Amino acid sequence: MSASETHPNQTEANQPRRTLTGVTTTGIPHLGNYVGAIRPAIRSSQTSTNEDDKSFFFLADYHSIIKCSDPKQVHESTKAIAATWLACGLDPEKVVFYRQSDVPEIPELAWILNCSCSKGLMNRAHAYKAAVDANNEKADVDPDHGITMGLFGYPVLMAADILMFNATHVPVGRDQIQHVEMARDIAGTFNHKYNKSLFTLPSAVFDDNVALLTGLDGRKMSKSYGNTIPLFGEYNPQVDPEKQLRKAIMQIVTNSQLPEEPKDPDDSVIFEIYKAFATPEELADLRSQYEAGIAWGDAKQILFEKINGEIAPFRERYFELMANPKELEEILLMGAEKARRHSRKQLDKARRAIGIKPLAKLK
Q: With contact defined as beta carbons under 8 Å apart, do 216 and 249 qualify?
């Protein structure tokens, strides 16, 4: 699905757009996160021309415990991700920026939606099916071995995240499109079951123009592969963060071609990453250097200077926020209050729709 595609029963183009983006708090942001999610989402929030449009950004810490049982990692990741978004230009005054766990209406709505969602729909979720398939490949192992209800019901919690704020557009990677489709299905089932038009049917948004970065070893950049380039690196007074970035880039795997040999830029991880940062003119120039012959060390240095030139202005603010968690906490709590102005009303409507409401008005 391209970024311009929507479903036929989606809100009209002239109606307010509600965009919702969540980030699971299980890791430290890397260059792939910045290019694939952080940069485009922030730019989108800054360029909206409709004052009625709203953008919701949240730290999905309840989602994180589905796959991470290390409390310290979840906590540190929450701090690092919040600091990264803010350092890269997210304006908490213009968007709703909150921590999922600070909005208790979300898990309550998830339970309500669970009671309308069919088990068969959850059986078709990619993550659950993959876990079952992995178990079926082993001898004498129950198909559901090691599968928690968190993993099984993950799409319902994601639906609650989306439907709580009647998000119209949900930017996702290709692997998450199914979950937005499930949120549509869950919303439609609830609306039909209770004869209400309470939940807007959301659209998944996937931008084919957003780069998916290649990692140090030539595979997709992913923490699970251990091939990432940290966005800001770890704060260490003894180590210059620019040197950390340069050291990571110098670890990119290349072939054994000699410096003077012509090289294919379209078969180079260095060039692939460079495309996500360079102008067309800069790309054309580096391409010509590849074709004429360029030392891999020189190509990596060009890549380092380009990336560092873009993220260096954010680095100081990032470390400032990491050293001042109180400021982060205040910003997140401010965002939570903004989020709850929406969620309290939406949950009350959902509760009343299913018959949970006061028995009588009291004076």
A: no
